[in-house]
Design a protein that fits this description.
The structure is a single chain. With about 160 residues, the chain is an all-alpha fold. The protein has six helices and two strands; from the N terminus they run ββαααααα. It has a two-stranded antiparallel ribbon with strand order 1-2. α3 crosses α4 and α3 runs parallel beside α6. It is globular and about 50 Å long.
């Protein structure tokens, strides 16, 4: 890992958080690695306080994500850098709200979130194209998380 990334240090707090502890700096599939890196944190938060703590953590990471993404984008001069994956963290945690501690449901939550995040069906694609700035970076992944939550809820009903 280099210590300087386009006018911001790799050790700047905004870099650490925006890249979710550098997981987004992977040269291949940074969004997928950011989503994977979110899973153990989500599990730990769920184990500490269930759905309530996890929902609170989603709100905190969403708001923190807007701040650190704004700082990171301003310092790098880029609008939606691929290495910024804190948006994947907030979005990935949403379907974990109903996954409980089931390994199968965790896997499905991950797969559904990645599908919606990559595919970007409406309204995700619309948000991605039309909502600008740090809020835009964050909000489309929240929408992907909500759709993944819905898909996981349907699967839970069938199982």
């Amino acid at each position: 890992m280099t210590t300087k990334l386009n006018n911001i240090s790799a050790f700047h707090p905004a870099t650490i958080m925006a890249t979710w502890f550098w997981s987004g700096l992977s040269p291949k599939a940074p969004g997928t690695l950011g989503s994977l890196a979110a899973l153990p944190f989500g599990y730990g938060i769920y184990m500490l306080g269930g759905q309530v703590y996890l929902m609170e953590a989603i709100v905190v990471v969403f708001l923190l994500g807007i701040l650190v993404t704004h700082i990171y984008c301003k310092k790098t001069g880029r609008t939606d850098p691929g290495e910024v994956v804190i948006d994947e963290v907030a979005g990935q945690w949403i379907p974990l709200l109903i996954a409980g501690t089931s390994p199968l449901l965790y896997l499905l939550a991950f797969v559904f979130f990645r599908i919606f995040d990559i595919w970007k069906p409406w309204p995700i694609g619309w948000m991605d194209k039309n909502i600008k700035g740090a809020l835009g970076v964050m909000v489309d992944d929240i929408a992907a998380g909500v759709l993944a939550l819905g898909a996981l809820a349907l699967i839970k009903q069938v199982i």
